[in-house]
Amino acid sequence: MSKDWAFYSRDADGQPASVRLDMAIAEDAPLAHLPVAAWVQLPLLRPHDDGLPGQADADALDAIEAALAAALVARSTAYVGRFATRGRCDFHFYTSAAGGWKERVASALQGFPDRTFTCGSRPDREWDIYFDRLSPSEEDLMRIQNRRLCDALQGSGERFEQPRPIEHSAYFPDASARARFVERATQAGCRTIEMVEPEARGEQYGVRVSAIGIPSHERIDALTLPLFRAAEDCGGEYDGWETQVIA
After folding, report:
1. Which CA distances in Å does 31 have to 9, 15, 155?
2. pTM value > 0.85
3. What is the Cα 31 distance to its own chain's centre?
4. CATH no. for residue 80?
């Protein structure tokens, strides 16, 4: 398995869902030699009221995931993620052929005799389950990136106690779209610190804005997502944020 795995939360037909996903495999997917989607579904033992895993379930799911991956992953089978919602968890794989899938799963789960499971498979050459069910939206991806940046700050000694300037960048196809974003950002409490003009025809119009805040795990989404959405509404693209470490 790759080292680029991410957790995130999403809506699933009006119900909350939690997803753990192999992000790196998206660069090569769909893999032509793995045209069959296969899955294993287990009921949660002690889910929260919202149907998501409680701590006891989370620990058990990690152990079950490790056992399934160790027994099933090979050149002919890839593990791509898990999806928990409504009191159950699905483990998703892609494999070369469906034959013997139930027997392989039963063997992998021999160490969990108290857990019931169902499993199945279907052709999925385009990897629709991976891209449509498991993969994050652009906004979900922003949340994942926010959390990773906060982890990096924390690893550098950040204590998330003092407000400081947080700089945000965005790019637009023309100056008028950029101006609309700057107006929205100003209304949100930001000040413009740099306009980045295109150096050649076809290049984008950039802007850097800054606002005071604490870039903690709990607060960063509220600081960045309004700007992310404003850039999108104006036809542009939010390009991320940066700040100094205050240990």
Report:
1. 26, 30, 35
2. yes
3. 21
4. 3.30.70
Q: Which pLDDT tens digits describe the chain residue by residue (247 residues)? A: 567 999 999 999 899 999 999 999 999 999 999 999 999 999 999 999 999 999 889 899 999 999 999 999 999 999 999 999 999 999 999 999 999 999 999 999 999 999 999 999 999 999 999 999 999 999 999 999 999 999 999 999 999 999 999 999 999 999 999 999 999 999 999 999 999 999 888 899 999 999 999 999 999 999 999 999 999 999 999 999 999 999 8
Are 106 and 17 found together in one domain? yes
Among 134, 169, 190, residue at a domain's last position: 134
Q: How far apart are the first and last CA of the chain?
A: 35
Q: What is the C-alpha to C-alpha distance for residues 196 and 171, in angstroms, rounded to an integer?
A: 9
